[in-house]
Amino acid sequence: MKIQQITENKQKYMDMLLIADPQEDMIERYLDDGELFVLIDDCEIRTICVVKLLNNRKCELKNLATRMEDRGKGYAKYMINYLCEHYSNSCDIMYVGTGNCTKTIEFYEKCGFVNSHIVANFFTDHYREPIYEDGIRLRDMIYLKKHLESEVDIKKVVDFALEAGRILLKSGAEIFRVEETITRICNRFHVEYVDTFTLSHAIFVTAEHGTEKAYTKVKQVPLSGSHLGIVAEVNDLSREISAGHISMEEASKRLKEIEKMPQQKGYFQILAAGLSSGCYGYLLGANLLESVMAFFIGCFLYIWVLIAQRHKMSKMIVNIVGGAIMTALAIVILRIPGLHGIQLGGMIVGAIMPLVPGLAFVNAIRDIADSDFLSGTVRMIDALLVFVYIAIGVGLTLSIYNNMGGGLVL
Amino acid sequence: MMERLADFFTVSLFLQIVYAFLGTVGYAILFNVPRRFYLSCGFTGAAGWFVYRVAEVHTSAAVASFFGTLVVVLISRMLTVRLKCPITIFLVAGILPMVPGAGVYYTAYYLVTNQLSEAVVRGMGAVKVAFAIVLGIVCIVSIPREFFQLRYWRQRFRLNHLRRLRLKKNKS
Asked: Tell me, what CATH number does A67's domain have?
C-alpha cells in the first residue's frame, strides 16, 4: 500500500472523484488548487482524495472516494491517517464536510473527527439534482473537524530543540537567539508549555504537554570556537521550521548536516588573519611598513593557532604562546638590518588582532544589553582573560630578551 | 578648522577606509561568515570606521566610538532585515576596529610589567570606549524591528496619502 500525490493531469481521475461528488462542476471548483492523493494497492488505485488548503493553517478534505468493491478494507482510514500526518506540518485543523448520513459521519468520528458546524441547505442550493444516500435526501452539509497535532513526542521535540540550541551556543550565538530558537521549535511542534534558561555554557529546558509529566533536560556547552556560518544556517532552519515548511525528521537531518559544516580552508584563514592584522594595525596607528610586517606576523601567528586548535590545547596556552611567538617575530624583524622606522608597538598592536576575542566581546556586550548579565559577565571575563594571556606572553618574551642584553625597546 | 578638515579628507582617509574594508572582511573570514556576506561586512566596517575617524577629529575617542558604533549597528540592522540573517555576522566584524583591543592589551601589558599608573590610564580609556560601544549598541537595538522594514514605511506612506486624498475630497 502506498500513497502518491498527483500534481498533473488531475482530470484523469474524474470518474473516480464522481463517486463521492456527483456533480462535475462542483469538483472542478476545488480540483485545481486542491492537492490530489491516490492510494495504490496491488498496482491499482483504491482510494482517492482531494485536500484544499484554507487560510490560517487550516485545510479541508474535499473529496474522499473508494470504489464500491474496495470498501470496508480500511483503505480510506489509512488515507486519512496519512493525510493527518502529512498536513500536521502546515495545518492545525482539518475540516471535512459531508451529508447527513449516519454511516459516513460514524466513519469520520472513528477517525478522530468531531462536530464542527453545519451549512444549511448546501446540497439543495448547489446541486441541480437531489442526492439520495441510504434513501434520505441530503440537504445540509455537516462539517466535522480534527486537530492535527499528530502524536507529539515531547521528548523528541525538546531533544531536537536543545540540540539546535547547543549548536547555536557553541558557534557563538547570543543568549536570546538560543532561547528564541528553542521556544520557536517547541511551539511549532505543539509543545504546550516550554521554558528555557540559558547561560553562556549551559542550557536548561523544561517542557510540559497535556497530562504528560514535565520533561526537563540540561545540556552543558563548553565555551568554544566561533562559526558564524553555522549560526546563520541554524537561524534559517529555525525560520523555516516555524513557518511550517519542514517536518521534524527533515529538520533533524538538516541540523546534523549543518553541524558538520567545515571551517574555511587553512591557508585561507591564515591569509585572512594576516590581512586583518595588517589592515587593523594601520588603522590603529602603525605606519605602512609596520603594517606590512604585521601582515606576516599575523600569518605566522595564525599557523600556530590552527595547530593548537587541531590538538585542542587550552586557551591559556594558545594565547600565551601566541603572544610569545609574535613578540619574538617582531624582535627578529627589528634586528633586520636596513629596515628603518619600525617600532615594536605598531607591529604588535596589529599582530594581536587575530587573537582578539572580538566575538566574545561583542556578544558579552549584547548579552548585557539584553539584561543577560550572568552570561554577559562570564563572556566578558573570558574575553578579558585572553588579553591578559597575550600580555603575559608578550611581557615574558620581552623581559627574557632584555635580560639577554637587547636593551629596552618598547 | 577647515584646513584641518581638508588635510584630513585626503589620501590617508581614503586609505584608512580601504583598510577598514579589507580588515573587516579578513575578520569575517576568520569567523567563518558565509561567503555571500563578505561585501556587506566590509561595507559595514568601512562605514563605521569612516564615521569614527571624522568624529575623532572633533571629540574624544570614546565619543567617536559611540558614533561609529551607532552607524555600524544601524547598517547591520538594515542588512539583517534585508538579507534575513543573524545580526552578529555584521556586528562583530564591523565593531572590531573600535573595540579597545589595543587599549585592553596595553593595560594588561603594563600590569604584567608592573607599570601600574600607565595601566590605570590605559584601562580607564578602554573602559570608556567599551561603555560608549555598549551605549551605541543599546540605542539602536531598542528601535522596533518594523522601522527597518521597507514595507512598513511604504504602508505608512500609502495610508497618509490616502488620508490626504480623503481630506481633499471632503473639503471639496
From this structure: 3.40.630.30
Same domain, A191 and A301: no
Q: How many domains does chain A fold into?
A: 3
Same domain, yes or no: A27 and A116: yes
Q: Which of A259, A275, A310 is the last residue of a domain?
A: A259
In order, the DSSP letters of A110-132 are: HTT-EEEEEETTHHHHH-SS--E
Q: Is the domain of A135 the same as that of A40?
A: yes
Contact residues, chain B, for A242 at CB < 8 Å: none
Of A291, A358, A391, the CB nearest to B105: A391
Per DSSP bridges, beta strands A193-199 and A141-147 are unpaired
Range of the domain at A224: 154-259
Same domain, A392 and A353: yes
Partners of B135 on chain A (C-beta within 8 Å) are none
The alpha carbon of residue B155 is apart from the nearest alpha carbon of chain A, in Å, by 23
Contact status of B121 with chain A (Cβ, < 8 Å): no
Q: Which residues contact A402 (CB under 8 A, 6 or more apart)?
A: A408, A409
Instruction: Kindly report the backbone phi and psi dihedral angles of residue A206, in degrees, each rounded to the nearest multiple of 5, phi listed first.
Output: -125, 135
C-alpha cell at A308: 593548537
Q: Is A216 in the same domain as A300?
A: no
Nearest by CB to A387, which of B25, B91, B105?
B105
The residue among B73, B109, B116 with the most chain A CBs within 10 A of its CB, best to mutate, is B109
**Looking at A241, A259, A277, which one is the last position of a domain?**
A259
Name the closest residue on chain A to residue B13, using Cα atoms: A283
Residue A96, beta-bridge partner list: A61, A144
> Does the complex come out with an ipTM higher than 0.90?
no
CB contact under 8 A, B30 and A368: no
Chain B residues inside the 8 Å CB shell of A275: 22-23, 25-26, 29
Both A251 and A300 in a single domain?
A: no
Looking at the structure, do residues A184 and A135 belong to the same domain, yes or no? no
Q: Which of B31, B86, B109 minimises the CB distance to A394?
A: B109
User: pLDDT per position in chain A (410 positions), as tens?
Assistant: 778 888 888 888 888 888 888 888 888 888 888 888 888 888 888 888 888 888 877 888 888 888 888 888 888 888 887 787 778 777 778 888 888 888 888 888 888 888 888 888 888 888 888 888 777 888 888 888 888 765 567 888 888 899 999 999 988 888 888 999 999 888 877 787 889 999 888 999 998 877 777 888 999 988 667 888 898 999 989 888 887 677 777 888 888 998 888 887 888 889 999 998 888 888 887 788 888 888 999 999 999 988 988 888 888 899 999 999 998 998 888 888 777 777 777 788 888 888 888 888 888 888 887 888 888 898 889 888 888 888 888 888 888 887 776 554 44
Q: In whole angstroms, how far apart are CA A9 and each of A5, A12, A39, A56?
A: 12, 6, 16, 28
